[in-house]
Amino acid sequence: MARNIALRENTINCLLETSAERYASRPALGMALEEPLTYAELFRRVRDMADTLRRDGVIKGDRIAILGENSPHWCIASLAALRLGAVLVPILPDFPEADIHHILLDSEAKVLFTTQRQVEKVLGIREHRLLKVITLDDFRAGSDLLPVEPLSKFVERARLFLRQLPDRIGLRSNAVSSDDVASIIYTSGTSGHSKAVMLTHGNFVANVLTVANHVLPVPPEWTFLSILPLSHSYEFTLGFLFPLLNGARVAYVGKTPTPSILEKVCQAERPNIIAAVPLIMEKVYKKKVQAAFERKALLRLIARVPGLKLRIYRKIGAKLIEFFGGRLEIMAIGGAAINREAELFLRQSGFPYLIGYGLTETAPLLAGGPWGDETIVVGSTGKPIAGVEIRIDDPDPRSGIGEIVARGANVMKGYYKDPEATRRVLDGAGWFRTGDLGSFDRAGNLTIRGRSKNMILMSNGENIYPEAIEDKINSCMHVVESLVRENGGLLEALVYLDYDLVDEETKGRSPQHKREHIDGLLLRLKEAINPQLSSFSKIARFVEHEEPFQKTATSKIKRYLYTH
Hints:
The chain starts with 11 loop residues before the first helix and ends in a 20-residue tail after the last strand. By secondary structure, the protein is α/β, with parallel strands linked by helices. It has 17 helices and 25 strands. Strands 2-1-11-10-12-13-14-15 form an eight-stranded mixed β-sheet. A five-stranded parallel β-sheet has the order 4-3-5-6-7, sandwiched between helices. Strands 16-17-19-20 form a four-stranded antiparallel β-sheet. It is globular.
């Protein structure tokens, strides 16, 4: 399966230039259900925007922020900034106003690209050093403190300026090296302290080339459906740069991808590949599969017959592929751990998927696949990708679990303005301490056991890995999500229930009956889960958590909010 795609230089600029030459007439980027730009058109727009930004005073090393929803304009703006050697500062649209202000001020962003839905978050910013704000969706309102220029006006200025030039700037750009910082990504991690990760052109390109050559071959005819925020390294690398390298097409979903919208888009676009977080497929499993078996006694009875459950799963898997348009070749799942039962269903149903593991600091992929490897086991993330070394530091002699430490060309340059934090996780030999716990099996598969900071040390000296317990709790049909913590020397599980299901089961009954029903559910959860746990990891209390847990962009619970 190994291929040999190579670039003249390991920079994102060279990646774009090479693809523009190789795939000039092929479709590149577009909103779903709309006509896409070709690779030649994409490059021309990137070049024109870069030239105008240069005229407006943007130079190499300047920080260019982007705060907006996914669109081809988002991609063009980011590539234009990188073409100048500027540093991209992508901001997650879900970040609160205070975080956005901090990022803009801390990064000293010179230009901000944004949209109507986001611009109000920045109009009141004080002590700003922004040179200009450009709205990617042509929104025109602004303020005296922060003037706003719509993209159409910016583009028109670009055209007028470029007509005056006797010769256009050539196709190639040599101003950027692989070691230059391409992006500063401010994380909103589960630990509670956001870090600003500096990733170089070489970090991103090393990851993209490795995936293309060793993990998953992608032909130019494939269509990628983009549903995750481009401001996260997972989608930026694997849902944007990766298809661009391969000459494939990317379609962006303009709205929140609810099941009805996703089905409509998939039937029209018929994607070959989708990058998703586990939550999407876990919801499908619970609502479409688990619920059917729970509610239909005949189905449960038939499933007890050897081989019949597998046949039922295969039929459901085929229907799922049809739901996603009928041409789905792979669902790339990453960003958080997937529930084991949901993954087991995907495996048994024949649904095409691949689990990956990584971090923002590693641009992001460390392990995953390779596609077609039959030794990958359910619950693991597959093998370390080519060019990445992974070792387990200080493993437990009984379980083999220890901290995952990695080294490779995709490991970050460091944390922006924080050399001390950089030294804590990155040593002189290039080894990066992930903070994740894991172990290897005999086939070389890496299994993630949780975060080292999340490990609970009980008074009896036993180590408790809460994520493993939560995985069992979350597999229960009435549970949406859970969090296990230590409270007063005992283990306690906070549980957010599926209230749609609870409402359905208590329809027409009194609030008191509903309260009793929920208490009964929590008791049955305790009775179902504790027998699956060791004597020292049993849950003393199951407590209802009445609202969703606050999460990161990849749907990981911000545990620090609930464990102090």
